[in-house]
């Protein structure tokens, strides 16, 4: 039988609603029109209707019975909205029917008793299950999270705000994680790598290219003796004394006056100047310039390589 009915958020009932307690086998509910009597009977007729989500009903011993409701809505569903003419009566039951009814009543009593026993057993098992779940939850928290908190705190993040979430996370991993199992020490090492200090970014070592340096080193000019023209009178003397560079450096002074830059005497004649200029012809000058340019480029390239090597070493 029904022990309690709660009606909320439907028809004339607000969020506070009403609660009808201490119901007996026979109850009499009365009230003015539109006070909610039909709403209560309609709820009992269709307990699963979504519009009664805020309503509830409590059965004695949790034994839910089939509910039959006869009200205005029942009459309209079955006989329409017109007036019912005539009187309806039930004939007398036969002896066999009465005996069958008695048997059904006895069987129904046994079923109710069995249902009560099974519900009691079910409730006991629910309590046992809840105790086991609570024990498992506490074990997960103390034996896993607390024990390895310092090592895997970052890995546990997102599931440590409650014991229930942490337990659920472990069960999900157990059911779905197909990765190879690792030892606790292996997991600690991985955790240090993943959740430890962020690695410092180091640029890759640049590829040092020596092609141009080798090209300069192998240039044929380094195997070449650069001298002035041999058909000048003073060519033999300059070549014999191997003073090409020295004489070439003094050429700039010959253009200023007749004083020799070498002996400081007025021995420089126009003819001597012409011989000097003729000795150091364009070919000589171009080769000297080429050698100096290559030397300068070589020094720059080698210094760059030294700088790169120093950077790599740092």
Write the layout of secondary structure elements.
Blueprint lengths: L1 E6 L10 E3 L16 H9 L10 E4 L12 H8 L15 H51 L3 H8 L6 H14 L7 H12 L15 H7 L17 H7 L2 H11 L15 H10 L2 H32 L1
Antiparallel strand pairs: 1-2, 1-3
Helix pairs in contact: 3-5, 4-6, 7-11
Describe this structure in words.
There is one protein chain. This protein has helices at residues 37-45, 72-79, 95-145, 149-156, 163-176, 184-195, 211-217, 235-241, 244-254, 270-279, 282-313; strands spanning 2-7, 18-20, 56-59. The protein has 314 residues and is mainly alpha-helical. It folds into 3 domains: 2-84, no CATH class; 111-195, no CATH class; 211-313, no CATH class. A 3-stranded antiparallel β-sheet has the order 2-1-3, with no helix packed on it. It is rod-shaped, with a radius of gyration of 56 Å.
């Amino acid at each position: 039988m029904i022990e309690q009915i709660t009606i909320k958020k439907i028809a004339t009932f607000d969020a506070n609603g009403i609660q009808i307690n201490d119901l007996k086998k026979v109850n009499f509910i009365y009230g003015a029109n539109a006070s909610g009597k039909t709403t209560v009977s309609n709820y009992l007729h269709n307990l699963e209707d979504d519009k009664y989500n805020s309503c509830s009903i409590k059965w004695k011993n949790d034994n839910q019975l089939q509910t039959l409701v006869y009200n205005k809505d029942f009459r309209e569903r079955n006989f329409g909205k017109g007036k019912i003419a005539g009187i309806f009566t039930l004939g007398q039951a036969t002896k066999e029917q009465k005996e069958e009814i008695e048997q059904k009543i006895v069987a129904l009593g046994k079923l109710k008793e069995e249902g009560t026993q099974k519900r009691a057993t079910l409730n006991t098992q629910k309590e046992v299950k809840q105790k086991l779940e609570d024990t498992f939850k506490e074990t997960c928290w103390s034996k896993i999270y607390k024990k390895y908190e310092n090592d895997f705190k970052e890995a546990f993040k997102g599931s440590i705000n409650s014991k229930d979430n942490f337990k659920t996370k472990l069960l999900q991993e157990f059911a779905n994680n197909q990765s190879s199992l690792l030892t606790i020490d292996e997991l600690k090492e991985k955790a240090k790598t993943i959740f430890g200090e962020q690695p410092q970014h180091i640029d890759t070592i640049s590829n040092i290219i020596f092609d141009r340096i080798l090209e300069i080193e192998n240039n044929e000019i380094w195997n070449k003796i650069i001298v002035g023209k041999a058909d000048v009178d003073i060519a033999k003397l300059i070549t014999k004394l191997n003073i090409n560079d020295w004489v070439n450096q003094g050429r700039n002074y010959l253009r200023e006056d007749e004083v020799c830059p070498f002996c400081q005497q007025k021995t420089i004649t126009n003819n001597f100047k012409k011989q000097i200029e003729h000795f150091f012809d364009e070919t000589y000058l171009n080769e000297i310039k080429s050698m100096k340019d290559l030397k300068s480029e070589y020094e720059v390239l080698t210094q760059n390589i030294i700088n790169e090597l120093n950077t790599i070493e740092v």
